[in-house]
Amino acid sequence: QKQNTTNDYLLASRNVNPWLTALSAMATGQSGYLFIGVIGFTYKVGVASIWIPVAWAIGDYIAWWLIFKKLRLVSQQTNSDTVSSFLGQENLRSGKNNGRLITIISALITIAFLGTYASAQLVAASKGLNAIFGWNYQLGVIIGAVIVVIYCFSGGIRASIWTDSVQAILMIGSLLVLCIVGLINCGGFGELWTKLNAIDPTLTNLIPANLPWGFFPYFLGWIVAGFGAVGQPHILVRAMAIDSAENVAFARNIKFVCGQINSATAFGVGLTARALLPDLITSSDPELALPYLSMELLPAVMVGLMLAGLFSAAISTADSQILSCSAALSQDLIPNTANSYRMAKITTLVVTAIVLVIALTGDNNVFALVIFSWSILACGLGPLLVLRVWQKPISVPVAIAMMIIGIIVSIAWNLGLGLSSAIYEVLPGMATGFIVYGIVYFLTDSRELSK
Question: What is the pTM of this model?
Answer without folding.
Answer: 0.91
